[in-house]
Amino acid sequence: MPESLNSPESNLPLAQVTRKRKRNLAWVWMIPVVAALIGLSLVWNVWSKQGPKITILFKSASGLEIGKTQIRYRDVVIGMVTDIHLSGKRDAVIVVAELSKEAEGLAHSGTQFWVVKPRVGLGGISGLSTLLSGSYIEADTDDPLNEFINQRKFIGLETPPPIHSDRPGTRFKLRAKDIGSLGAGTPVFYRRIQVGMITEFELDDSGKFIDLQVFIDSPYDKFVNGSTRFWNESGIDVTIGSEGVNISTQSLTSILVGGVAFASFGRDREMPAEGLVFKLYDTYKAAEIEPQGIAIPITMRFDQSTRGLKPGASVVFQGVDLGIVNTVSLEFDPKTERFFTQVDATLYPERLGMLYTQRAMANKPLEAIAENLALLSMRGMRAQLRTANILTGQLYVTLADVPNAPKIKMPRAELPFVMPTAPVDDLDKLQQQVTSIMNKIDKIPFEEIGKEFNKTLKQLTALTATLDKSTAPELTASLKQLEKTLKSIDDLIAPGSPIPSNLDATLIELKSSVRALRTLADGLKAQPDSLITGRSSLPYSRESIGAGAK
């Protein structure tokens, strides 16, 4: 045993038995957890930046592409088209688009969408930039700061709206009997300057009028007040009246596409708080002739002919248009069993100017003004017909003082006020003369005169052609022959030629002959019998002949 202890193997360490520790693998599970957190963060990041998904209904998908067509708001990209498909009835195209997170506020009921592409119209050319970049969908909203109802389905506009939300100005409402040549985009003028346009129109609930929405740009919208009137300025307005022929238009644009103009008449009035529906007049004359303010209805009875008096004629007082004729109708008086013409008109005292202001007529009841008209009638004021234009036969009504007017009882101060009338004898005579002149003008055979004139022109044309072909060459030859003849005459009478020399000799001989005849005459006078007895041998002279005579 001891030896075994002292052996080399006895120096080896003794073996120890220990329990092996278990391996901890818990940290490995941190990898998928971290990956899951990263994924969630990415999903959250994408989800937090993702806006709402909307659908827009268009009639066609012209120019639209999935994944390429953008949605813009004020030239900022706010979304992208993700899908395009047909509707269930196949009558429209449904465009699906995703908006960005910052554009989430545009997904409400006040937003409009339309496709921007090249368009050509009377207002010019738009959308040329899309020729290179491609079509895109434009968005616009009335006011992005207001609270609207959230909406995800929209009906796209086929044409861009005429007015964008960022354009400063004010909208007004007009009412017209018919639309005429007006429409969306029609310009609005103020003093011949384009200051706005018609944005839309629709038929009112009663079906009797057309309501038009107009937009007036700032700062011109401040000129619209309670005394403003709008009128149709489309085309060319040609009127024939007592002032002659008037032609007016706003601009070339109004002739082509129509137009609306406005101006203020009378004193400026404040706009009502609830707004005002403006009447759209047919012409400027119609807008001018109907002032706002108090209106006094009157009626007149004329027993004479009123041919030439039409609704719209003026009622004049002291040369100033004080009113307008509304209706002209034929009535029958059962008491006298005679027909007469009843004329209904409206007077506007505001046109009296300073008198209207000084007398404070605006604060007086209409009956008080009717009493003033009754007093004026008692003093001799009458309504008479006058000729406005001799050629056209147009008439108007004038309120004038008639000195010899028969006295009447005090008229009733009620409305409509019955204005007494007075006939004008010269009016019928003047109308007869005008009718006679027009009849004589009608008898002139203008058509026959025109035919004869055309025939004369044809004959003159034929004669001119004949002269050009035959007479002109012969005349040229005659002129050349005449030139040769004149040249020959110049050669004959030139100095040194025989004709002038012979002519001088002939003149000398003629002079000698005249002298001899004179001597013979003197001799015969002194001795008349020399013709019988012969010539005397005695010489004589003029002195001797004179002495013998004595």
User: How helix-rich are the residues, as a percent range?
Assistant: 25-40%
Count of folded domains? 4
Largest pleated sheet: 7 strands, mixed
Q: How do the strands of the widest beta sheet line up side by side?
A: 5-8-2-3-4-1-9
Spatial gap, N to C terminus: 242 Å
Category by helix and strand content: alpha/beta
So what's the overall shape?
flat
Number of E-type strands: 25
Report the radius of gyration as a whole number of Å: 55 Å
Any low-confidence stretches, pLDDT <50, length ≥5? 538-550
Mean pLDDT: 77
Q: β content, as a range?
A: 25-35%
Number of helices, where a helix is a run of at least 4 consecutive DSSP H or I residues = 12
Explain what this protein looks like in three dimensions.
The protein is of the alpha/beta class. The chain has four domains: 110 residues, no CATH class; 121 residues, no CATH class; 127 residues, no CATH class; 45 residues, no CATH class. The protein has twelve helices and 25 strands. The strands form five sheets. It has a seven-stranded mixed β-sheet with strand order 5-8-2-3-4-1-9. Strands 10-13-12-11-17-14-18 form a seven-stranded mixed β-barrel. The longest helix is centred in the C-terminal third of the chain and has 47 residues. The protein is flat.
Which properties best describe this structure?
12 helices, 550 residues, seven-stranded mixed β-barrel, seven-stranded mixed sheet, disordered C terminus
Give a summary of the structure in a few sentences.
This protein is of the alpha/beta class. The protein has helices at residues 2-6, 30-49, 130-133, 252-257, 284-289, 354-358, 366-378, 425-443, 446-492, 498-526, 530-533, 542-549; strands spanning 50-58, 70-73, 76-86, 93-100, 111-116, 119-121, 124-126, 136-141, 153-155, 169-176, 187-190, 193-203, 210-217, 228-232, 237-241, 244-248, 260-264, 277-281, 296-302, 314-317, 320-333, 338-347, 381-389, 394-401, 417-419. Strand 15 and strand 16 form a beta hairpin.
